[in-house]
Amino acid sequence: MRGVEGSAANALAEIGEPAVEPLIAVLKDSDENVRNLAIVSLGDIGDARAVEPLIHALKDSSKKVRSFAAKALKKIGGEKAEKHVRDYQKQTPWYKRL
């Protein structure tokens, strides 16, 4: 992310753990750019509480949101996150994940 969005994502990630629950709530926002910002921030924070909501985001109507969610889950890591990322990659051809 660049510009204002990138700066906002960095600022939220710097807040760290206290920002996790509010960011999870933002994943339900109607604006896909807002959801993407929250996803990037959650991935940067790396808190395990974000794993389930990010797994749910892999089913978002927006291809971009799904892609960002997969990247965030990969960044957070852990067996459950990695399994869902693998499943997402198997179900979605690489050219549709871009």
From TrEMBL:
- Gene Ontology molecular function, alphabetical: oxidoreductase activity
Residues passing through the membrane, by range: none
A Pfam family of this chain: HEAT_2
- Coiled-coil region: none
According to UniProt, the name of this protein is HEAT repeat domain-containing protein
Q: Which organism is it from?
A: marine sediment metagenome
